[in-house]
Amino acid sequence: MTLKATLAALATGFALAAAPAFTLAAGPAIAEPIRIGAYVSATGPNAFLGDPEMKTLKLLVDSINAAGGIKGQKLELFAYDDAGDATQARSFALRLVKQDKVVVVLGGSNTGTTMAAVPVFQDEEIPFISLAGAIVVTSPTKEWVFKVPATDRIAAERSLAHMKARGLTKVAMLNGSDGYGQSGREQTLKAAKEVGVDIVADEIYAPTDTDMTAQLTRIRNSGAQAILNFGIGASPSIIARNVKQLGLTQALYLSPAVASRAFLENTGAAAEGVHIPVSAVLLAGKLPASHPQAAVAEAFRTAFESSLKEPVSYGAGIAYDALKIAVGAIERVVAAGKPVTPEAIRAEIEKTRGYVGLNGVVNMTPQDHMGLDSSAFIIAVVKDGDWQLAP
Q: Signal peptide location in the record (predicted)?
């Protein structure tokens, strides 16, 4: 299959016209364009997530606009870069709703930028699909809020279960003081009781810290057999290097947020042996053919890397699924002959069933606005400088 054909097949139902600061030429519209909004952290400390998210939105939507849009109707994407700032995120949310008049929004590269904007979408009744991992995004269920990646609770359960299967039942936590880190900490404490492992140390660091040897020294003296970190940005790389520098032998598990080629490059040899629960896209080409996501993961990886000349990443996969789910909902609204309104789109997003994406097989309900189970994550290990399926 040619690259053009691959992109068209992956992004069926997608279309895009330009957004401020992220401009793409669009073909002539047959009808009034459907306005879609997005805000991500394309720059700043969370650019390792937001940059590939923005690139993915452009790549997929542009290819579909060129193919005719949704039954000849183009999508107009208004996309903004919040640079990882929660205040900016809220401002852009208001702009998307009040000024740009969008009917659905994708965004929130992290928990902070997501939760800052959630009240806007709830109050204005605009469907919002978050790209953040924390369980708080959709628990409790919020009428207008959905999310793509599996929660930090599922990530904690998968990591702890893998540890236990290896005979590692004494675990130390080392988490950031930010929203993602503390949500991961809380969910790990709950999951540990269910999985049957003991938390023997509970350490915290500030996202701006450049050395965690003090916390890791205390962990070394705690009797822990494994270390679990929920962190973003540079912190996980610092932790991995500090573990090696101190000569610690405990197994190190990190969160899905750092599952990227950038982490491997930034961490170097210290990444060897690190375990992470990842989505299928990071193991594209390495999954057994029988895996339900093997085909879509490999097709997307090929299209992304061929077009952008950079490795596919966790963020890219999240953006793909968010847009695919949103446009799938719009397609169903159009097919039913209904006006494309926020209310109609919200109802169809909630009906998403059997969607095989890069982050899992999605089955949403009115009570579950994520629609994923523990199979959404696969445990990967760094071996010879690359991600591999963990035994």
A: 1-17
